[in-house]
Each structure stands twice: as structure tokens, then as C-alpha cells.
Write a structure and sequence with these properties.
about 25% strand, elongated, Rossmann fold, 11 helices, 6-stranded mixed sheet, Alpha-Beta Plaits
Length: about 350
């Protein structure tokens, strides 16, 4: 579908994209991630023909973006981070204009415009000037023009900027529906959004490819999902004996406070949570809390785009039932990015 070959983009001495090689398959939703300045938007602009590459090429459905730009661009619908809108037009005039640019057959334009208007929920503003629309509605107009013509590949750069939570959910559903007939490439700083809709995650940093895999595989490969934290009501000696009798369990930490024993153990290949539960119940030392470390996409992203992994300081217990209540659930490490670039903050606008 899309093949990026040894792609390089330089701005003077700065290398924005550094010999990037990537293959994007048909019929999937790809999440395109990276810190600010990683080269995401530059790569997407080259893929769509907005920018020229310093070196390398992009092949789209067998067409080189350099040698056959018109044929390659015809395969792509693109929503930039800042939608290219003509604010002195109405929504209908703008979409009609875009349909002409995309060479949609005249006899099909009205039906296609009506369809994308319904998909993006623009019925109520179809006759209004774009200049008078809120930021959220402008974003949806930009999304409508990207879908218009129904190209096989749709590239969306921050498509939910300015949308309220309800509209974000609607756009997620729309992306999922588009994936049934299109290949979708989605760039966003909202990692939960990427995780919710994407089949494959691409992570780049300093213009280089760091990862290209499914969310589950990335979390599994980079996670510590075999570490258990237990809060048991019982004596430390009793809990220690119980854990010692469990095959494949390594005790990393064990201490008692009052009537409660806190344990951190590492499992082997076998999941022993159910067996531990019944073993403790038989000894009348009930497990009051059992927490399995799970790696989130956010942790995967930070680990891959950081050069240092720093263990968190010991947290003071708050309450009896949850030992690490200060630390977010599922977090086993804290990561300090070498380049502390925070995602851009975008103002949310209600429509």
C-alpha cells in the first residue's frame, strides 16, 4: 500500500527525517507517534506531496510521489493539523470546490458531499460560512474534505483537536468505520485515542523508526506484566511460608505493618494468581488486594523515546488496602524523558 524508502529530510543542518524505512499495509489503522519535533508531520507532508524529500522516495499503490505525483496523491485523503479551509465560503461551497479539485465526477458530487456531511455530522452547518464556525466544526469540515472522493488511504494529523469529548467519541467511531474500506494513518498526542482505534503503532524519534507493532505486542515486550503486588491480612511468617510453597514464584519484597503483610512477587511463565488466592483462603489469610503490573501505551512510548529509565522513589502508604495508592495503578516505573517536550496543549471548544 505505502512503502517509505530511505527517506531523508534536512532543513539546513537539522535532520527532521533520518533514513526512514517503513511499509504500511492495506486495511489497518496505524497510529503514528513521536515526541514534538520527532518528524511525524514532516513525514506525512512528504507522503502527501506537500513537501519534497531531500533523499529517498515514497511509493503509494505502486506510484512514486516524486515521479508520479498526481497518481500518488489521488490515492490519499489528507487532514493536516491546521485544516486548509477557505473561511469566506460556506461548508457546502467549500466541499463542492474540494470535490472539483479531487476530480470527483460531476454526477457523483452531490451524493458524495451528502454522504461525508452525514458521516462528520455537519448537517446543521452546511449553509453557514466557515468563518462563523467554532474550532470543532472547522475541524470536522477539514475531515469531510479528507474523506471526500473516498481514496484508499486517509491520513489524519491530530483529527480531534478542538472537539469536545462527545465529538471525540464520534470521530473514533468514524475512523473505525473508515478502516473497513480504507487504510487510515492517525497521528495524535492523545495516547488513549491511539490505543482505542489503532491496529498498529508506529513510533519515531529524531526522525528514526523505533517501533512498528501492535499495541499488545509492544506492551508485552516492554512491560513487566509478571509482577504481582499483594496485600494480605495475616502474619508475615504465614505469608512467607505460603509463597515459598508456590512453584515459579520469586519473592522480591515482603514486610508487615500491623495486621497486614505486603508482598511483591515475580511469577514465572505460569499465572499463579488463582492458586495464590485459594492457598491464602485455606489458611484464613485473605488477600485484600492483588495487583498485576501492566504496561500502558504511555509507558511504552516514554521508554522508547527516552534514554534513561529511573526507578520511582518508595511511596508512603495511604490506607490499608492499597499499598501504592499514590502511584497510578498499573505503573511499575517512572521514566524521565531526555528531551522534556510536552505534547502541545490544545484548547477544547464546545459546539
Amino acid at each position: 500500500m505505502i512503502e517509505i524508502r530511505n527517506l531523508v529530510k534536512r532543513y539546513g543542518d537539522h535532520v527532521a527525517v533520518d533514513h526512514l524505512n517503513l511499509t504500511i499495509e492495506e486495511g489497518k489503522v496505524y497510529g503514528f507517534l513521536g515526541p514534538n519535533g520527532a518528524g511525524k508531520s514532516t513525514t506525512m507532508n512528504i507522503m502527501t506531496g506537500y513537501l519534497s524529500a531531500t533523499e529517498g522516495d515514497v511509493i503509494i499503490n505502486g506510484h512514486s510521489i516524486l515521479e508520479e505525483p498526481e497518481e500518488a496523491k489521488a490515492c490519499i485523503g489528507y487532514l493536516p493539523e491546521l485544516p486548509p479551509l477557505y473561511t469566506d465560503m460556506t461548508v457546502l461551497e467549500y466541499l463542492t470546490f474540494c470535490a472539483g479539485l479531487k476530480r470527483v465526477p460531476v454526477q457523483e458530487r452531490s451524493a458524495q458531499i451528502q454522504r461525508v456531511v452525514q458521516m462528520t455530522r455537519l448537517e446543521s452547518v452546511i449553509g453557514r460560512l466557515i468563518a462563523n464556525l467554532s474550532k470543532g466544526y472547522r475541524q470536522r469540515v477539514g475531515l469531510a474534505q479528507a474523506i471526500l472522493g473516498f481514496p484508499p488511504i486517509i491520513i489524519l494529523d491530530e483529527p480531534t483537536i478542538g472537539l469536545d469529548p462527545k465529538q471525540i467519541i464520534e470521530i473514533r467511531r468514524l475512523i473505525s468505520n473508515l478502516a473497513k474500506e480504507h487504510t487510515v494513518i492517525l497521528s495524535s498526542h492523545i495516547l488513549s485515542e491511539i490505543q482505542a482505534v489503532c491496529d498498529q503503532i508506529i513510533i519515531i524519534h529524531h526522525g528514526k523508526l523505533l517501533a512498528n507493532d501492535t499495541p499488545d505486542r509492544l506492551e508485552e515486550e516492554l512491560g513487566g506484566s509478571n509482577t504481582l503486588h499483594l496485600t494480605v491480612k495475616g502474619e508475615k511468617k504465614t505469608v512467607e511460608k505460603l509463597l515459598a510453597n508456590e512453584a515459579g514464584v520469586t519473592v522480591e519484597e515482603l514486610e508487615q505493618e500491623g495486621a497486614y503483610t505486603y508482598a511483591t512477587v515475580r511469577m514465572g511463565a505460569e499465572d499463579v494468581r488463582e492458586h495464590l488466592f485459594f492457598a491464602c483462603a485455606d489458611q484464613r489469610t485473605p488477600i485484600l488486594n492483588l495487583h498485576l503490573d501492566e504496561t500502558s501505551l504511555e509507558q511504552v512510548f516514554l521508554r522508547l523515546t527516552s534514554d534513561a529509565v529511573v526507578a520511582p522513589p518508595q511511596k508512603k502508604r495511604r490506607g490499608l488496602l492499597h499499598r501504592n495508592s499514590v502511584q497510578p495503578e498499573g505503573t511499575s516505573i517512572a521514566v524521565a524523558p531526555v528531551h522534556p517536550e510536552e505534547p502541545e496543549k490544545h484548547e477544547e471548544v464546545s459546539d
